[in-house]
Amino acid sequence: MSETDKKYQSSIPLDHEYVELPVPHRWDMTDEEMIKESQEIYEMMQKRHTIREYSTRPVPREIIENCIKVAGLAPSGANHQPWHFTAIENPEHKQKIRDAAEEEEEKFYAGRASDEWLGALEPIGTDNSKPHLTTAPWLIVIFAQRTSVDRNGRKFNNYYVKESVGIATGFLITALHKAGLTSLTHTPNPMKFLNGLCDRPATEKPEMILVVGHPNEKATVPAHAKWKKPLNEIMSVF
Questions:
Q1: Is the pLDDT higher at 9 or at 129?
Q2: For the chain, how many helices (H) and strands (E)?
Q3: Which end of the chain is more exposed for a tag (fewer CB within 10 A), N or C?
Q4: Sign of dihedral through CA atoms 86, 88, 92, 94?
Q5: Looking at residue 7, what is its pLDDT?
């Protein structure tokens, strides 16, 4: 943390009263420089791919910690930061999660999912087998917190929880990609088993498992995944 950030952190009150602080960081860029930067981030994110075949190459814990710190910077409803990230490297622990996830996925593909849902998944090529859950060096389980406890020990409700956690997850995926890693969003249905396996309270809702690592030499991506809607279908201007 920089000295400037430490200064601002020390100015943040423990209670919830409103206190104004001058903007701590400002960009000083021309329009041309900003256009260039926006194009470069687009080109970087074009190289992000969802991978299901992972290398066993280890990933230093410091990289995972740094990327989760990035996720923790995301905006959230009333700045309540209603998220928790459980990072799992231990092979035995990953195996327990894989066993539980595949049990739920088997039920999903055997009848829990509608024909329409299964049809939508067909071009992606998924099934109930999830070897990436044990092959990849890290799993990050993302939990949404309906309630929290402040620094004075007081319990309070959180707001816009799903939206806030979604934004933080986007920050995390982008940070992992920028760090040279590949990720996969995995959402077994249902996911309640993750609370027990991650030692998280029942008040927290598991949102997804983020599989993190490097693609192996034979990794592929489904052609369907490379189709993205053009700008005129995802943007309107008034």
A1: 129
A2: 9, 6
A3: C
A4: positive
A5: 53
Provide the residue ranges of all domains of the chain, joining segments of one domain with +.
50-234
| 169-178 residue pLDDT tens | 999 999 999 9
Rounded CA gap, 55 and 236, in Å? 41
CA nearest to 105, candidates 169, 193, 170, 184 = 193
If one counts every other C-beta atom within 10 angstroms of the C-beta of residue 133, the result is 24
Task: Find, among 49, 191, 57, 61, the residue nearest to 136 by Cα.
Answer: 57
Closest-CA residue to 197 (of 57, 128, 58, 103): 103
What distance in Å separates the CA atoms of residue 202 and residue 222, rounded to the nearest whole number?
A: 36
* Whole-Å CA distances, 188 to 159, 166, 193, 194, 228: 25, 17, 10, 10, 24
pTM: 0.90
CATH number attached to the domain at 50-234: 3.40.109.10
Answer whether 146's CB lies under 8 Å from 206's CB. Answer: no
